[in-house]
Design a protein that fits this description.
heterodimer; A: 301 residues; mainly alpha; two-stranded antiparallel sheet; 78% helix; B: 284 residues; alpha/beta; 9-stranded mixed beta sheet; two-stranded parallel sheet; 11 strands; 43% helix; 22% strand; elongated
Chain lengths: 301, 284
C-alpha cells in the first residue's frame, strides 16, 4: 500500500518533470523562430540588394540625387531620399519631443484619477490607429493648413514631419513615463526634504535620473519615424527631387521603395532592395544604440 | 542544459532543412519532366499586362515557362525580326516596313487617359500642345491657357507605372519635350483622384476607366482638342491621348504554338480581366 503510493508519487513527479522539459523546449523553439525570422529577412534583403553594387557604383547610389530608373540611360541616385528621410525624422522629433516629454511628466507626476485614465487610453488609441488613417487625416487637415499658411501646394516634408510627430507621440510618452516612474521615491523625498519645490525636484532630480530611459524612448521614436511609409507617402508629395525648404515636396527612402516596387525589374528592383538594406542598417544602428544606452545606465546603477 | 539546447537547435535545423529540401526538390523536379522556356518582350506599357498574365497562363499550361523582357516597343520588334523573341509587345502602330517583313500585330487592349482638374480650375478644354507645355513645366500658370492667374499644380503617376509611360510618350515626348519633376507623385489612380479633388489649381491624368472616381471626388474631366475621353472616341481613334496595345508575331500565329495559346488567353475573358486590372481598356 505504502509502496504503491510512493511509486504513484514518483510517477507523477516524473510526469511533471517531463511536462516541464517539454514546455521549456516548446518555448525555446518559439524563441528560435523569432531569431530565424530576423536572420532570414536580413539574408533575403542582402541577397536581393547586394548585386546592384556590381552594376551601379556605390558613389552614384549614395551621392547622386538623380533617380531616373526608367530613362533610356537610367540613374539610381538615392541621396535626396536619404536626406529627406532624415529631414522628416528630424522635423517629427522637433514637434514631438516637447509635447511627448511634457505629457510623460504630467502622467507620471501629476495625473490622477479618472482624467489620467482617459489620457492613457487616448494615448493607447493613438498608437493603435493604422498609418493610412494618419495619411488621410494629413491630406484632409495638415496639407491644406500648410498650403494656406506657408504657401506651396501643401504636400511637403513639413506635412510629413507633422504627421510623423503625432504618430511617434505614444512611443515616446509610454517609454518615458515608465522610466520617470521608475525613479526611486527616496530620491524625490530627499529632494523635497532639502527644500526643493516639486518643479525643481522634477527637472533637477527626476529627469536626470530617468535620462537613459528617456533617451531610449527617443531613439525608438526615431526608428518608428524613419521606417514609416504609408502616412508620409500620402502627404509628402513624393516628387523625386532634392527638397531645399521644409515646405518643398520630397521623397523618403521608404516612399521610394513602395512607389517603385510594383513594376520594378532587374537593376531597378535591386536598387530598391539596396535602399531597403540601408534603411535596415539605420534601424539596426538605432536598436544597438538603445541596447548600449540601457547597458550603460545599468552599469551606472 | 547546454547539451539539451544543442539538441533542440539541431532538431530545429533538421526540420528546417527538410522543409527547404522538399521545397527545392519540388521546384527542380517539375522542370526536369518537360519544360519549355519562351522569351517574349518589348513594350514597357504592355509589360504590366504580360507580367500579370504570364503566371496565370503558366498555371493553366504546366510545363511552359515564359519570361517577358521589358525592352521598349521598337527594340522588341527588332528582336522579333532577328528571331531572338518569338512574340513582342508593342504600344505603337507598326511601320509599313515591319509589316512588309512579316510582322503580324494582334490588338490586345486599348489605352486611353483622361485629363482631370480640380473644381477650382476654370478651363474645360486643352490642346495637346498646351498639355505638353504644362506637363513639361514650360507653362506654369493657368492664365497662360485661358484660366485664372494661379500656379498650376501637377499631379502625376509614379515613373514605373504604365499610365506615366503612356502619357509621357503620347503627350510630352511626341511634342519633343521632357516631363518635369516638379510634380506631386501619386501611386494609384485613386490617390490621383483624391489629390486632384483636394488640391486647388491641380491637374493630373488618370486611366480612362477611372475617370468617374475623379468626378465622384469633386474633380472635372477635360476635353482634349475638343474631344471627350470615352471608349467610343478611343475606338474611333478620335480622342488624342489613346492608342491600341499589340502583341506582334512573325506571320499569323499558328494553332498549337505557345504564342497562339498566349494570345488566345489574353483575348479570353480572363485575359481581358487582367487588361482591365492593369488600368487599360479591355476590347469588349
Amino acid at each position: 500500500m505504502v509502496t504503491g503510493l510512493k511509486t504513484g508519487l514518483q510517477k507523477s513527479k516524473r510526469l511533471r518533470t517531463a511536462m516541464e522539459s517539454v514546455s521549456r523546449v516548446a518555448l525555446l523553439a518559439a524563441a528560435l523562430i523569432s531569431i530565424a525570422a530576423v536572420v532570414l529577412i536580413t539574408l533575403f534583403i542582402v541577397q536581393q540588394g547586394l548585386p546592384m553594387f556590381s552594376k551601379v557604383p556605390a558613389s552614384e547610389f549614395f551621392l547622386s540625387t538623380v533617380w531616373t530608373p526608367s530613362a533610356s540611360n537610367p540613374h539610381y541616385g538615392i541621396a535626396s531620399f536619404i536626406i529627406a528621410s532624415f529631414e522628416v525624422t528630424f522635423l517629427a522629433m522637433i514637434f514631438s519631443l516637447p509635447i511627448a516629454l511634457s505629457c510623460a511628466i504630467y502622467l507620471s507626476e501629476f495625473a490622477k484619477g479618472k482624467f489620467a485614465g482617459i489620457l492613457r487610453s487616448a494615448i493607447e488609441l493613438l498608437a493603435g490607429i493604422p498609418s493610412i488613417i494618419y495619411g488621410l487625416f494629413g491630406i484632409a487637415l495638415v496639407v491644406p493648413a500648410i498650403r494656406n499658411t506657408l504657401g506651396g501646394n501643401g504636400y511637403s516634408l513639413l506635412s510629413a514631419g507633422i504627421i510623423l510627430a503625432i504618430m511617434i507621440l505614444p512611443t515616446i510618452i509610454n517609454f518615458s513615463e515608465v522610466s520617470i516612474r521608475a525613479v526611486s521615491k527616496d530620491l524625490r523625498m530627499a529632494s523635497v526634504a532639502m527644500g526643493a519645490t516639486p518643479w525643481q525636484t522634477i527637472y533637477k532630480v527626476v529627469l536626470p535620473s530617468a535620462m537613459s530611459g528617456i533617451v531610449s524612448s527617443v531613439v525608438l521614436g526615431l526608428g518608428r519615424a524613419i521606417g514609416e511609409t504609408t502616412a508620409v507617402l500620402l502627404v509628402g508629395g513624393n516628387a523625386p527631387v532634392f527638397a531645399i525648404k521644409p515646405t518643398d515636396m520630397g521623397r523618403t527612402m521608404t516612399m521610394n521603395i513602395i512607389t517603385d516596387m510594383s513594376y520594378a525589374t532587374g537593376v531597378h528592383m535591386e536598387a530598391l532592395f539596396a535602399t531597403a538594406m540601408l534603411l535596415f542598417l539605420f534601424i539596426l544602428l538605432l536598436n544597438a544604440l538603445v541596447v548600449e544606452i540601457s547597458r550603460r545606465s545599468r552599469l551606472e546603477n | 542544459m547546454n547539451k539539451k539546447l544543442i539538441v533542440v537547435a539541431m532538431t530545429a535545423m533538421l526540420a528546417a532543412s527538410a522543409v527547404f529540401a522538399q521545397g527545392s526538390s519540388e521546384s527542380s523536379a517539375k522542370p526536369a519532366a518537360s519544360t519549355s522556356t519562351y522569351t517574349f518582350g518589348g513594350s514597357s506599357t504592355v509589360a504590366p499586362i504580360a507580367n500579370s498574365a504570364i503566371p496565370v497562363f503558366e498555371s493553366l499550361n504546366p510545363g511552359k515557362k515564359i519570361s517577358y523582357e521589358t525592352l521598349g516597343s521598337s527594340v522588341g520588334i527588332k528582336q522579333l525580326l532577328a528571331g531572338t523573341l518569338s512574340l513582342a509587345g508593342s504600344s505603337r502602330e507598326l511601320k509599313q516596313s515591319e509589316l512588309d517583313a512579316g510582322c503580324v500585330p494582334t490588338t490586345i487592349a486599348l489605352d486611353g487617359l483622361s485629363v482631370a482638374v480640380n473644381s477650382s480650375v476654370a478651363v474645360s478644354n486643352l490642346t495637346m500642345a498646351q498639355l505638353a507645355g504644362i506637363f513639361s513645366g514650360e507653362i506654369t500658370n493657368w492664365k497662360e491657357v485661358g484660366g485664372k492667374d494661379a500656379k498650376i499644380q501637377l499631379i502625376v503617376r509614379d515613373e514605373t507605372s504604365g499610365t506615366y509611360g503612356s502619357f509621357k510618350e503620347i503627350v510630352i515626348e511626341a511634342a519633343g519635350k521632357e516631363p518635369t519633376t516638379d510634380a506631386i507623385v501619386a501611386k494609384e489612380n485613386g490617390e490621383v483622384a483624391t489629390k486632384i479633388a483636394s488640391t486647388p489649381n491641380s491637374i493630373g491624368y488618370i486611366g480612362m476607366a477611372f475617370g468617374s472616381i475623379v468626378t465622384d471626388a469633386g474633380g472635372k474631366i477635360l476635353t482634349v482638342n475638343g474631344i471627350a475621353p470615352n471608349t467610343q472616341n478611343v475606338i474611333d481613334k478620335k480622342y488624342p491621348i489613346s492608342r491600341a496595345l499589340y502583341v506582334v508575331t512573325m506571320g499569323k500565329p499558328v494553332d498549337g504554338t505557345v504564342e497562339k495559346d498566349f494570345i488566345d488567353f489574353l483575348l479570353s475573358s480572363k485575359g481581358q480581366k487582367i487588361v482591365a486590372e492593369s488600368d487599360f481598356i479591355p476590347l469588349n
